[in-house]
Amino acid sequence: MTDQKLIDAALAVRKNAYCPYSGYRVGAALVDDRGQMHLGCNVENAAYPQGNCAEASAIGAMISAGGKTIVTIAVAGGRDAVTACTPCGGCRQRINEFANEQTRIIVSGDDGNWDTYLMAELLPASFHL
């Protein structure tokens, strides 16, 4: 699975986001340890804590399909145009739960290019059970 395919999938699923309150659309596409792609978009709710982030939705799809480990995840977000969008703190921990030292997180950077991070860069000294 190429990085570009994941980026394209994240951009495509972002269009399906349900975000009437923030107007901020996020799409996530991940590939698991079996080479399968899983998608998610943010789904807001009037009771704000009840919404789902795109990353959490994609992880839920992966687990439902039998995947165990995230190999790479691409995240695309923004209001109208795609802007810099790294996973929120909660999603960093969610990704970390299913990541390993080689898991890559691809996000749109401030300059319009796509940046790649390892989990330890986005969540240093992370919590593990």
Keywords:
about 130 residues, alpha+beta, Cytidine Deaminase, domain 2, 4 helices
Order of strands across the main sheet: 2-1-3-4-5
The CATH homologous superfamily corresponds to Cytidine Deaminase, domain 2
CATH architecture: 3-Layer(aba) Sandwich
Number of helices: 4
Mean pLDDT, to the nearest integer, reads 95
**Which structural class matches the secondary elements?**
alpha+beta
Task: Report the principal-axis shape.
Answer: globular
The fraction of residues in strands falls at 15-25%
Total count of domains: 1
Spatial separation of the terminal alpha carbons: 30 Å
How would a crystallographer describe the biggest sheet?
5 strands, mixed
The helicity comes to 25-40%
Overall number of strands: 5
Would you write up a description of this structure?
This protein has 129 residues and is an alpha+beta fold. It has one domain: 3-Layer(aba) Sandwich (Cytidine Deaminase, domain 2). The protein is built from 4 helices and 5 strands, in the order H-E-E-H-E-H-E-E-H. It is globular and about 35 Å long. The model has no long low-confidence stretch (mean pLDDT 95).
Furnish the topology, listing elements before pairings.
Layout: H1 3-14, E1 25-32, E2 37-41, H2 54-64, E3 70-78, H3 89-97, E4 104-108, E5 114-118, H4 119-122
Parallel strand pairs: 3-4
Antiparallel strand pairs: 1-2, 1-3, 4-5
